[in-house]
Amino acid sequence: MFHYLQPLLGVQLFLSCWAQAVPGDPNHFFYHDLLSGNGNGEIYFNGVKLFVESTQRSVFAVRGGNATLSCRYWYEPELTSPRQVRVKWSWVPAGEGQEVDVLVAIGTRSRSFGDFRGRVRLRQDFPGDAALVMTELQLNDTGRYRCEVVDGLEDKSSSVDLELRGVVFPYQPPHGRYHLSFLEAQQACEEQDSTLATFEQLFHSWKEGLNWCNAGWLADGTVQYPITQPRVPCGGHDLAPGIRSYGRRHRHLHHYDAFCFSSSLQGEVYYLQHPLKLNLTEAQEACQEDGAVIAKVGQLYAAWKLTGLDRCDAGWLADGSLRYPITKPRTNCGPSEPGVRSFGFPPPQHKHGVYCFRSADV
Question: Is the backbone peptide bond immediately before 77 cis, with ω within 30 degrees of 0?
Answer without folding.
Answer: yes
